[in-house]
Design brief:
This protein is of the alpha/beta class. The longest helix has 22 residues, at 321-342.
């Protein structure tokens, strides 16, 4: 596949500075690019590589001045480059087309137009799958589940009974949506299972990473809001509600009935107790142990999580503990010597 620089500039709403008649045959990082590739510069620390890269053209920010290479100025080089990469991927060659003969389809299943379903997928009764959705091999879809249009479900995903999946949702390999929440009543040392009769609702434009688990609610529903992106190996427990356009990074764990606002960032390995609220725009740093609610637009870190500025001071004190202990030992020795002299 190849595209002219004019075509690429139009795609990303960019301005060409330099020769505009070049033909681009591929995309690559600024270090690895070869002749014929287009690359991008978003992080200033890679600016010295502009004069070293072999790329035929570079996507840069609007305020970037000209250089020896042909450049395309854009508002957001990283997003623009993502659009270019997407344009170069031959998607249709690898995605399932039609319904593979090994697919098991239950009763009263409704399939929209241009739905593709790969081998050995199981679709139980009363499932609805809307137009242009692609489902790869080995997926399980439980009874009464609903999947919106233009969604992409990769291999070995399990969508349990009654889950609701919106439009343009991407779910990566091995994710489990709608497993039972972890609910038990302990009586005389024995753990008795509490039925989990709610559902999971995944709203439009959500992306869910590989091997992530989102549990069904005990009652009502667990909700992932529109535009939220979830990394691999995340666990979201029963009755959690996540707002819109939030980011949840790998190995984070969110306990039951916690409410996450809009535009929240939960960094890797952060852990949240249940029944708390995280306000809009909050940032929970990596490995934060969040034991109480966090106000909107607040950054917290550490364990137990506290405001980031305070956590930094606490950490600085901890780093000084060996020195402080040594000083205490020396002071104790001097006090003992003074006491001896006084006697």
């Amino acid at each position: 596949m190849q595209k002219t620089l004019k075509e690429i500039a139009k795609l990303v709403d960019g301005e060409i500075v330099g020769k505009d008649d070049k033909v681009i045959t591929g995309t690559s990082g600024i270090k690895e690019a070869e002749e014929g590739d287009i690359t991008f510069l978003a992080n200033p620390k890679y600016a010295p590589l502009v004069n070293q890269t072999k790329a035929s053209a570079i996507i840069v920010s609007r305020n970037y001045e000209s250089c020896a290479k042909t450049i395309i100025r854009t508002d957001n080089p990283s997003l623009a480059f993502a659009k270019v990469i997407d344009a170069f991927i031959p998607k249709d060659n690898f995605r399932p087309k039609g319904i593979h003969p090994t697919v098991i389809v239950g009763k009263n299943v409704s399939l929209g137009k241009n739905v593709g379903i790969g081998p050995y997928t199981v679709i139980e009764d009363n499932v609805t799958i809307a137009d242009d959705t692609i489902i790869y091999s080995g997926v399980f879809i439980g009874h009464d589940a609903k999947i919106g249009s233009s969604s992409l479900i990769y291999s070995n995903v399990s969508l349990r009974e009654q889950v609701l999946i919106g439009n343009r949702v991407i779910i990566h390999n091995g994710a489990v949506i709608g497993a039972d929440g972890f609910g038990f009543a302990t009586i005389e040392g024995k753990h008795h299972k509490i039925p989990q009769i709610g559902i999971v609702e995944i709203c439009d434009d959500v992306e869910i990473g590989a091997n992530t688990a989102i549990d069904r609610a005990r009652f009502n529903k667990t909700v992932i809001g529109r535009g939220t992106k979830i990394d691999n190996l995340v666990h979201i427990a029963h009755n959690v509600v996540v707002g819109e356009n939030s980011l949840i990074v790998a190995q984070a764990g969110i306990s039951g009935s916690t409410v996450i606002g809009n535009n929240v960032i939960i960094a890797g390995q952060a852990g949240l107790v249940g029944h708390i609220n995280i306000g809009d725009g909050a940032v929970l740093a990596a490995q934060a142990g969040v034991t109480k609610s966090v106000p909107a637009n607040t950054t917290v870190s550490g364990y137990p999580a506290r405001k980031h500025e305070e956590a930094l001071r606490v950490n600085a004190c901890i780093q000084n503990l060996p020195k402080l202990c040594q000083q205490i030992r020396e002071l104790k020795k001097k006090i003992e010597e003074l006491e001896l002299k006084l006697k």
